[in-house]
Amino acid sequence: MARIAYINGRYLPLSMAAVPIEDRAFLFADGVYEVCEVREGALIDEERHLKRLARSLRELRIAAPLGDGAIGTILREVVRRNRVRDGMVYLQITRGVAKRNHAFPAAGTAPTVVATAYASDPAAIDRKAAAGISVMTVPETRWARVDIKTVSLLPNVLARQAALEAGKSDAWFVNAAGEVTEAAASNAWIVTGGAEVVTAPADDGVLRGVTRMVLIDHLAANGLRLVERRFSLDEALGAKEAFMTSATSAVLPVVNIDGRPIGDGKPGPVSRQLRTLLRSSPARSAPYAGALRDTRSDVIP
Amino acid sequence: MARIAYINGRYLPLSMAAVPIEDRAFLFADGVYEVCEVREGALIDEERHLKRLARSLRELRIAAPLGDGAIGTILREVVRRNRVRDGMVYLQITRGVAKRNHAFPAAGTAPTVVATAYASDPAAIDRKAAAGISVMTVPETRWARVDIKTVSLLPNVLARQAALEAGKSDAWFVNAAGEVTEAAASNAWIVTGGAEVVTAPADDGVLRGVTRMVLIDHLAANGLRLVERRFSLDEALGAKEAFMTSATSAVLPVVNIDGRPIGDGKPGPVSRQLRTLLRSSPARSAPYAGALRDTRSDVIP
Question: Could you tell me if the ipTM is greater than 0.90?
Answer without folding.
Answer: yes
